[in-house]
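BUG-415 | component: ligand-complex export | severity: low

The export step for adenosine monophosphate jobs runs without errors, but we want the raw record kept on the ticket for reference. Input record follows.
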Amino acid sequence: MRVLLVGGGGREHALALGLAGDPAVEALVAAPGNPGIAAVAELREVTPTDPAAVAALAVEVAADLVVIGPEAPLVAGVADAVRAKGIAVFGPSAEAARLEGSKTFAKDVMTAAGVPTARAYTCEDAAAVAHALDEFGAPYVVKDDGLAAGKGVVVTDDRAAAERHAAECGRVVIEEYLSGPEVSLFVVTDGEAAVPLLPAQDFKRVGDGDTGPNTGGMGAYTPLPWTPPNLVDDVMRDVVHPTLAELRRRGTPFAGLLYVGLAITPSGPRVIEFNARFGDPETQVVLALLETPLGGLLHAAATGTLGAHSPLRWRDGAAVTVVVAAEGYPAGPRTGDVITGADRAGIIHAGTRRDADGTLRSAGGRVLCGTATGPDLAAARDAAYALVRDVELAGSHHRTDIAAAAVDGRITIPG
Ligand code: AMP
């Protein structure tokens, strides 16, 4: 199988490692890729959000499967353009990707499907915003209605800050605050059959102890020793299958990766958000434990044959990833700094570039991450931090508490 992977961040580096490790994948092309991905794939230039350009590249490289990593190409219709060329693609249509691209659309689908989630209002003016904030009270949850790369959400006790964010965004979804630890559940689906991967937890805030602003994600671990038994079965039954059925009913089946972001509240799991693609950095840890060949799994989802796929196999133990971010991230990351100590197994490249002379430099807010496995969470955590310690990047920062509460047994479900 010849595979074209679209994207160039940490998630795509993890996907590239998984695809390259599948004996059925005879050629892997990544566009645009990154210096980490270059070690396992041929890199090609492309604008990932240009449907015609990606489809043409898929034809040119004779791809049997196109895997689309990020959300923006999906929302732009890249999967549709590739499918129109008769090439199998892992990633939903633009219509189905609205599950991520529009918070209002997602709420609408959840309501129609009876999926447990926070009560919410879509607001377009200050009066509606004030009314919704009054109704739900603090902490206030205000979400930009469009794609915001995980950074369009403000959760705050500060009423003025909530109003300011709403005014800056224009159209927002304001919702009830959900209390409880969060879980990311990835589900591979062909629109009908659905296969859950291991639940993971990520760390959205920039600082230790969940302080500071939201980011794209500062680290992750899997598995989760503290989740209620049956969590995955319950979410498949109450969330995933009803959502997939509702999208089929609308004539826009969702095939690809359905990312279910959940809060485990005292009344049970509630959906915080859907995404239409693998999450970053949870993908790094989930794929580190996946033993089943990745290419075959994604190809089955892309060709409507997932129901016939054999059950997934997982490695024992745990995986942890720690993100190294550039100085100034998330507000205003500085780029162009020299990175040393990054050319080793377990270092996933997220925002890097390489000069002609081989020098590696930072090229984004989240620069790279150290991903490690171990016989248990504590060992995986130590190994991931050992990787990060050996990386040098001026001004960089990382959280020191990734997976710490889980290792110490400090995560509880309020009740
Ligand atoms: P989202 O982009 O919707 O995932 O939101 C980003 C982060 O904001 C989530 O991971 C949560 O930590 C937080 N968040 C979003 N919605 C809620 C909610 N209704 N209640 C509590 N926290 C939320």
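Assignee comment: Attached the raw record above. Residues 20 and 267 are 42 Å apart (CA to CA).
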